[in-house]
Amino acid sequence: MNSVGERGGDAGPMAIPLARIGFTGTHRGMTYLQKAALRLLLDMLQPNEFHHGDCIGADAEAHHLVKEGVPGCRIVVHPPLRTDSRAACNADIEWPPTTYIKRNRHIVVCTELLIATPFERSEQRRGGTWSTVRFALHNKRPVLLIRPDGNQVCWNVRSVEKKNACCDSIVE
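^ thats the sequence. predicted structure below, dont judge the formating
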């Protein structure tokens, strides 16, 4: 598989409004510029559903941005088994806790677009955020990556298809 940094970008506007957005980010939290970019994206996309992993750091920060900026958006959390890294966000729907890998895959499979806010500017071989990005790209999901400097990179955006996301038909 090519590395994420070698894939062709597509910075064009989204052609289809997306109802279900997934999110992955660093436990260290987002930079100010990542938060500002995410706030603008949420304002533009106005999702009906927002899925995240309910961890401290970027997940909790994104949760609050959705609560503030997208009233009426249903928030779905996919918590980790490890309670010491859990943010315990107040969500509309909470999945049963599971391993990081399974939970990250659930987020991808249940959504139409993945937004990622990694700590690093370039792809890392290890780490949940980059692993989730690779899984999404492998499954032909569009990914919008917000780098620490706020710049955005998009992959697979033109291949977005409206699908009935599938929280009942998850492939492990």
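Residues 32-45 form the longest helix (14 residues).
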